[in-house]
Amino acid sequence: MSDQQHHLKAYGKLNLYLDVLEKRRDGFHDIITLFQTINLYDDVIISENSGNNIKFTYSYEQDIPFKPDLKWDLNNTIFKAVAAVEKHVNKKIKGYDIHIFKRLPPESGLGGASSDAAVIIDFFAEKYKLSLKDRIKIGNKVGSDIAFFFHKGTAIGTGKGNIITSLDGLPNFPVFVCQPMMTFSTPKMYSVIDYLRFENWEAIEDVESVSDFETEIVEEQISDKILDDWEDDDVDSWTPHDEINRIHASLKDQEQALSFNDFEKAAEELESKAYRDFIEQFNEIKGNSVLLKGMTGSGSAHFIVFRQSVSDKKLKKTFEKLENISAWVRTTQFK
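The chain above was modelled as a monomer; its predicted structure follows.
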C-alpha cells in the first residue's frame, strides 16, 4: 500500500436548545435538542502504511486547559468507531496511522469526540462503499449524537439525540464559545438531572417543557420584548418542538431568542462557587447585538450568538470579558 495522508476536519456543534426527557429502559435518556454546526474543528489525519495494525496518536492545541490521556481502548471513541466499522464489514482494518489534533476541548459539550468518530466512520465508509444508512447504523453503536455529524448544519435531534431532522440553515452568525475553569462529565450530569427530578420533585411532568426546572428568568440576559412575549404566552402549554421552532424562526429573522438547556440547572447543583461566579458574570453580557446565549450540550462550554451587524467594538469588549472569566475562548460562526 502506498503512503498517502488524508487531512480531515471534524467540526464541532452547539445545542441551541436541549431538553432531557424520560429515562429509557436501556439506561439512556430521550432528549430533544436543536443542533448547530460551528466552524471550529479537530484535525483528523489518517495516513496509510504497510503495517498490520492501527497506530493511534493525538495532541492538543496548546491552550486547551483540560487534556486527558487518550488510550487505544474502549474508552476511546475513535477506537469504538473503528471497531464498529470492522464489525459491520466483517473485516479487520489495518495499515493506518490515525492522529487527532484536538482543537475542541474535551468535556465541553462541543461534540469533539463524536465528530471525530463520525469523520473516521465516513472515511472508512468511503473505502467500503457504505451508504448513509449504514454510517448512521454504525454511528449509533458508538455514540448518541454521532448521527448529527453525518448531516451537519441545523437540525432537531430526538430519541437519544440520534434521530435527526434537518432544518433550513441559519445565517453564519458570529459566535463566541468559552469554557469555564471546570469540565462536566456527561454521565454525572445526567445523574444529577435524575436526582433533581426523581428525588427532589414532588411530581414529574408528563410533558416536558421550557419550564422543566422552573428556573427564574434573569431579565438582563434578554430584551424586554422577548421576555414580555414569553410571559404573555401560556408557558405550561409549550412543548419542546414549539420552543425549538420559535428559536429557529427568531434566528432566521435575526431576532433575539430565549435558549434553554436542562443541564444548566444540573451544573448549578453539581458545581460550587467557581461555576456560580462564572455564570453570574456570563449572564452580565447582554445587549441588542446578542441573539442567543447559553450552555451547549452537557457543558461546560457556553456560547453567545451575535447579530451579523454586531460592531467590532462590542465583539472586542465581549471577548475580553470572556477571557477574564474563562479558561478557553474562541471566535467562530455558524457553519
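The two ends are 36 Å apart (CA to CA).
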